[in-house]
Design goal:
Radius of gyration: 18 Å
Structural class: alpha/beta
Strand content: 25-35%
Largest sheet: 8 strands, mixed
Order of helices and strands: HEEHEHEHEEEEEEHHH
Number of strands: 10
Helix content: 25-40%
Number of helices: 7
Distance between the termini: 17 Å
Length: 204
């Protein structure tokens, strides 16, 4: 269900919060990701714990990395992404740089990152996997719902997931109906009133 919903609607429903800083963006605007968080905390410039996360990741997981907004080197590239795809991950979100950007864009595997750098990382500093972290200004716990698209990334706490998804689906249906009514000549105010948009927003 989350894959069919825009990150913007989910963020609105979740009280206009839960969104990562805009520096974390998809490598290609067509990339979308949705799935439970497999959290990783690292020391800047070291990807040892990302390799550890890849070793335990399950199909559908989203590896999300507190990379401390470091851009001095890349934390992942084409080889690690190939492993992630082979495992069946839904995607990766990193508050840090990546490399092999052309290859990563062409293979279509969803990658959200903070820029690029051709330098590789070190691989020997311990960190944490499946531990509460903070990524680009947002608290993320293992299993939280991570959704990203061209607008950016939003994180929904696991215990709020069902109610937020239900409310977001109702909002999206109303917005689809509003757009159609406006195309047919109705004013935006009238369309919002007709489809009870404000009541839905208040309930959400």
């Amino acid at each position: 269900a989350a894959r069919e919903l825009p990150a913007a609607i989910l963020a609105d429903v979740y009280g206009r919060r839960g969104t990562l800083h805009g520096r974390v963006a998809p490598l290609s605007p067509t990339m979308k990701v949705a799935g439970p968080a497999l959290t990783v905390e690292i020391r800047p410039g070291d990807n040892l714990m990302i390799n550890a996360a890849l070793a335990i990741a399950k199909p559908g997981d989203v590896i999300i990395v507190d990379g401390k907004a470091d851009q001095t080197c890349a934390l992942i590239g084409e080889i690690m992404t190939t492993q992630a795809q082979k495992t069946g991950l839904a995607g990766m979100v990193l508050d840090a740089a990546v490399r092999d950007v052309e290859a990563l864009r062409s293979n279509g595997f969803p990658i959200f990152s903070f820029g690029a750098n051709p330098a590789g990382p070190t691989k020997f500093v311990p960190g944490r996997v499946n531990w509460p972290i903070s990524v680009a200004g947002v608290a993320v716990n293992p299993g939280d719902l991570v959704v990203g698209d061209a607008d950016g990334v939003v994180v929904i706490p696991q215990d709020r997931e069902n109610e937020v998804l239900d409310a977001a689906e109702a909002i999206q249906a109303a917005e689809d109906a509003i757009r159609q009514s406006v195309r047919e000549g109705m004013s935006l105010r009238q369309a919002r009133e007709k489809h009870r948009y404000h009541q839905l927003q208040t309930r959400a």
